[in-house]
Design brief:
Blueprint lengths: L1 H18 L1
Length: 20
C-alpha cells in the first residue's frame, strides 16, 4: 500500500517535470 503511494507520487513528479 505504501509502495503504491510512492509510485503515485513518483509518477506525479515525472508528469509535472515533463510539463516544464
Amino acid at each position: 500500500m505504501g509502495k503504491g503511494l510512492e509510485d503515485t507520487l513518483r509518477a506525479k513528479e515525472i508528469f509535472l517535470s515533463s510539463i516544464n
